[in-house]
Write a structure and sequence with these properties.
8 helices, two-stranded antiparallel ribbon, single chain, 2 strands, mainly alpha
């Protein structure tokens, strides 16, 4: 292809992408807002806080903010996917490939990974915060022993279980990124990182699968159909709502911990004053 033809092809492709994006923005702006947004700075501490609880205070400021950020981003991503779903409807396969390559693949990949990431971040946050808050339950007996690894709910159970609000939080978090979501998305997040995940809009993957059962090897042929954008948006809406409910119980747990910390903080300051 000559330089002139290449330049013309590039201009034509760029013009097509601009039109696609304009249609997307129009579709996004026309959508009614779904969901809601998690709040920021919803807690208060007495100031100045005793040094024993400075780590808790700093952790809470970061963790609660980042959790709100990623959940709010997931809310936005559901809207973005719904807008793209309306844009690509009726497009030719060639134009679907263009839209997917330039816009949808990255959006879909990030969005489908967010439920697991949010679950992991909740677990990390509640584990560390509960561990720090446990000082307020037993100032003299508290020991700074906590797992130094990737955390799962079972790992944080000893730190969280003493708090009355922990179980309600755990029950709301457990369904997030669960088996139903994994099955419906062909376990996209895991397969994307360790194999060849399903595509968006167009194209099959996993056309040959190798299975070993009872020592015998067999092969399956067929492949995974591409994930539909509206179907992905619907699945992520369910996960998004799990996030909202978990965040509400997270807030309740933190309020319980802050109440206990406040009482202990008063006692520590009084003891310092008396000495």
């Amino acid at each position: 292809m000559s330089a002139v033809m290449t330049d013309q092809f590039t201009r034509d492709r760029s013009a097509k992408l601009v039109v696609l994006y304009r249609h997307y923005r129009a579709a996004l702006d026309a959508l009614p807002l779904e969901g809601r947004f998690m709040p920021y700075r919803w807690w208060t501490f007495s100031e100045p806080l005793h040094v024993a609880f400075m780590a808790y205070s700093q952790m809470l400021g970061e963790y609660a903010t980042e959790l709100a950020n990623i959940i709010n981003d997931l809310t936005h991503n559901v809207q973005r996917l719904r807008a793209w779903a309306s844009v690509v409807e009726g497009l030719s396969d060639e134009d679907k490939l263009e839209a997917s390559h330039e816009f949808i693949d990255m959006l879909g990949t990030v969005a489908l990974g967010q439920p697991y990431a949010i679950k992991s971040r909740f677990t990390f946050a509640v584990g560390h915060l509960s561990h720090q808050a446990n000082q307020a339950r037993n100032v003299k007996g508290w020991k700074d022993h906590f797992p130094d690894k990737n955390l799962y709910l079972n790992d944080i159970e000893p730190a969280g279980a003493p708090w009355k609000k922990y179980r309600a939080f755990k029950l709301k978090l457990e369904p997030l990124a669960g088996t139903a979501f994994k099955d419906a998305t062909d376990d996209f997040r895991n397969v994307y990182n360790h194999g060849f995940s399903s595509r968006f809009l167009i194209g099959k993957t996993a056309t040959v699968t190798r299975k070993v059962r009872n020592g015998r090897v067999s092969y399956g042929f067929g492949g995974n159909e591409p994930l539909g954008i509206i179907e992905v948006a619907d699945l992520l809406t369910i996960e998004r709502d799990h996030c909202y409910r978990a965040f509400e119980k997270f807030q309740a747990l933190i309020e319980e911990q802050i109440h206990t910390i406040a009482a202990c903080d008063t006692d520590l300051k009084r003891a310092q004053h008396d000495t």
